[in-house]
Known about the structure:
mainly alpha; globular
Amino acid sequence: MPLATPETPLALVRRARRINRELALVYPDAHCELDFTSPFELLVATVLSAQTTDKRVNMVTPTLFAKYPTATELAVAEREDVESIIQSTGFFRAKTQAIIRLSQAIVERFDGDVPGRLKDLVTLPGVGRKTANVVLGNAFGVPGLTVDTHFGRLARRFGWTTNTDADKVEADVAALIPKKEWTILSHRLIWHGRRCCHSRRPACGACAIAGLCPAYGEGPTDPKVAAKLLRGAE
């Protein structure tokens, strides 16, 4: 529902933080849905998750990491072997090249260990701020905002930003939410985007934060119709 009057900066902050609190109640177990046991595993899994689901990535990574548990092993892997393991994730040739090059850079520049600083992570081949923040927030405990397609879509629908550039979206949301909440907020928005606030036909009538959302009405508002649009985990 459109806001009745222009929102002051203070009101925006208060509404943003209330949305975060409400989503915490809806998704008390929100977490990274990629399986991993080390920063290296999470970094590779995040690269593999492009254009596919976390569920699909989780199906191939046990085999991949059993054979190549660290950057040192993956850096010298045979392309054909890696391709055969990750083929089902899509774009497997490009992804194979990406994770091998990534591993080589980690070995050559960081002695085989994934760096725990943003400025270092983004120097690695194929690693942007989104991927870096996933790794920092979930493997190192360093707060970060993961601006994927779900996060960006919801941030715009919530009126937290008008930007489409991921870096600008990140900066806008960072100004609204306490830093300690950045990582868990990312999970909550991603979970809500996957389960309720879809890109097409969001389930507005079944949304727990409908009363706080300026975009209410973009999807069906009838509760029964909206309930049929709700999804589970990927």
